[in-house]
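Try it yourself: sequence plus protoporphyrin IX containing FE, in.
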Amino acid sequence: VGGGIAWKNGRNKKGKTPIPGPHGLPIFGSLFVLSRGLAHRSLASMAQTRAATQLMAFSLGSTPAVVASDPHTAREILTSPHFANRPIKQSAKSLMFSRAIGFAPNGTYWRLLRKISSSHLFSPRRILAHEPGRQLDFAVMLRNIASEQKLSGSVSLRKHLQLAALNNIMGSVFGKRYDPAQDSGELEELREMVKEGFDLLGAFNWSDYIPWLSYFYDPFRVVERCEALVPRVRKLVRVIIEEHKLSGSRKVSDNADFVDVLLSLEGEEKLNEDDMVAVLWEMIFRGTDTTALLTEWVMAELVLHQEIQTKLREELKSAVAGNTLTDAVVAKLPYLQAVIKETLRVHPPGPLLSWARLATSDVQLSNGMVIPANTTAMVNMWAITHDSHVWEEPHVFKPERFTEGADVDVRGGDLRLAPFGAGRRVCPGKNLGLVTVGLWVAKLVHHFEWGPDGDHTVDLSEVLKLSCEMKHPLSAVASPRNVVF
Ligand code: HEM
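Structure, out:
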């Protein structure tokens, strides 16, 4: 059967045009493609060789799945109201994420969460109000980078970015920042919990696709580890909620943190405590790794392409001219924005858009194919951004394609480059993510010249976990520049 075991009985032929796809193995289908290595690359070459880039059907054990590797089909899937749900992994369910924005089914509760977060956490006014926090987290990072460079002669950037990103999101969500020198115990506990959650959500769990396996095969001990993590998360978040309750006034100002906002909700909007824990915890998860790893990819490309780094510094020099580098200045730097877009194109942090979608009814596509209800639908954004029919010289890192050619909206309006997804489930944190990465990259380049580290050359190999990150963390020589701001 085209598509394999989960597509038997003509499931892939419901429309005028059948959906092509590999036969896969008995029982497992094409599960091994997802369970190891770089799934986005394997799926891209499978779709290419089968002339199935528009849509390819395949089986993940008993779960029928399709993947779109072309902008047109990707748009039809992501923006269709019939794909507004997501299939939920066992780990996400056990970690309470079915009550958080990313996995809550399309309905009143999910719409309420989107509304609350877009007006109180992600609105331009709120993002601006939290700028002092972004500046503060950068100032700490700057000091730590300078001292590591002085001590070791090079800098391993990842840990600095991760601490800044964690503190930044903790600041705007929980109103709390950590100083490694003073709060090492609590910070370590939090870091460990975030890492455990990432590992569990990113781990490939065979029983998500072959349910009966769960009775005797759970190599990552997903169930047991989730059961151990949930009480720790509840305890940490509840303590923070109690501290906020004790602090009195529920008046919510622009720079209030998200806990205050959730506590101030009244009537039908009021969330119960478990829902609050889920929503708050999800923000920490989604907001930490994505900004840190995108900044690391940008900096790796800038170390490899010194001429691009010099050009960016020139742009910064003329824009700063005695002023502080702020969000407002950064937003008006076309070359910096082009460098970030080009990094999102070459290294989309979610190459398969992180969380899939689920068809809630049969969906007819404009090419005559029909995706049956209950099919898991993925978009291979990496395949689209590396397709030579869509992008000229797709493997070349060239920010100029965005300054010299037509500009491209990366926030979901143009499916040739939609690293934040699109449609009603598009990433709500996209503006916050872009503003944070923009400010930090601008400041890193303004304060240091970033050169190659002779002992650790830049290696762009990827590893796909919850997001796609550099397999070998970036190490570079950061030569301080004599700048005041
Ligand atoms: C570079 C930064 C980021 C990237 C590349 C990114 C990417 C994505 C992608 C691809 C999706 C799935 C969209 C879809 O299905 O169409 C998503 C969803 C989501 N993201 Fe982001 N994200 C980033 C930053 C953030 C930040 C900073 C936050 C919050 C603090 C956040 C919160 C979320 C949430 C809550 C969802 C689920 C939305 C829903 O299902 O309704 N993201 N993100």
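One thing you can check immediately is this: The longest helix spans residues 273-304.
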